[in-house]
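Team,

Forwarding the record for the chain on the shared tracking sheet. I've put the sequence and predicted structure together so nobody has to dig through attachments.
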Amino acid sequence: MERQERTSLYQHFRAAIRGEHVDLTSGSIRKAIFMLSVPMVLEMVLESVFAVVDVFFVGRVSVNAQATVGLTEAVVMIVYSIAIGLSMAVTAMVARRIGEKDKKGAGEAAFQGLIIGGVLAVLIGFIGAWFAEDILRLMGGSEELISEGKGYTQTLFAGNITIMFIFLINAIFRGAGDAAIAMRALWLANGINIILDPIFIFGWGPIPAFGVEGAAIATTIGRGIGVLFQLYILSGKTSRIKITKEQIRIVPETILRLMKVSIGGMGQYLIGSASWMFMARTIAMFGPAAVAGYTVAFRLIIFSILPSWGMANAAATLVGQNLGAGKPERAERSVWKCGKYNMFFLASLAIIYYVAAPYVVPWFNRDPEVIKYGVAGLRIICAGYVFFAYGMVINQSFNGAGDTLTPTIISFISFWIIQIPLAYTLARTLNWGPEGVYWAIAIAESTLAVISIWMFRKGKWKKVKI
């Protein structure tokens, strides 16, 4: 019997990787979660591996290079916020149309999302590249750091359209339940990033050593190739959702509906990103070593959190499709199950990180001060993992339902009313230093989870129309 169960699990795993179709609106909820979350988690695993590998190579350049990555990414989080916010709307609308068996409407929503994303990316790219030095200066970077790192910031902003599109198109695939294709696209993009990183950073053959700027070049090339692969699949016959010639047109009504839903999604992530900018700016008051330690800890946190976002994204797709099929109670049961599985995963990782932090952080930087700050950040922030496991799943479930306003309000309370004042008070007023910032993050994330659970139980998300 046990052998049969193992065989069945292996068969389901292979089916999930291959992207075999499963009806997410009927049958076993556990199987639906498994078939969706396996490719989504594996997709995020390589994304998290890239985040760690990137900071590993940059750490071999200099402390300023590593600090540049931390300060730049705190600002680039704005790009991620817009991309993810718009992606939420696209996933919700595509999933709802698929649940209603309206594939034409799903394709139409997908293309309108790409139009919005493309316009925003061009504007952000121009502004970010032009004001790269001012951005680093505003974030507290020294003149030496700005001189060394401005090329990284310019390149990352100039190529932000690849970030925008890879998020958006994968959101389209996820909304359609085509998580395996989204996984392959991100694996391709990040696999190329990992290969190109050392080549462009340190130089190889005819390619000169670009230093920290090389990391941005590798990222842009890798994600650009990933986007080309996505577009190829999206226009072909193998995907469950297609953009046909008839759908390549501007539909103002659909754009307005997407913008209405995405404003809330962008808002909640902009709130979070602005908060992270404040955290990075506060950390910068304590010097480059503190920023580098924060950057290492933050990347390691991403390493563990990103697979959990795979589970959260699975919950969002299940909610969207089941609401479209008129099955709100099944949608709710799916969310609680995803939250439980995610809690087990993150609680286990929190224990591992607490024990292993002094041994893991030195892999990325051997400076004693950097290690001290990195270990403290890793241990303290992970303290909020158990609560945050439910918070991230439930917030994504609101977004999957098209209710982006509720998590926006929750994010504002958690990050701006609680996290920012608490971080400054603990770090500066009470002289806790960077540890005060870390404790503020852990407390704010736990608060977000508690409020999210309370709002989710009210059930208003079941009645949202998109």
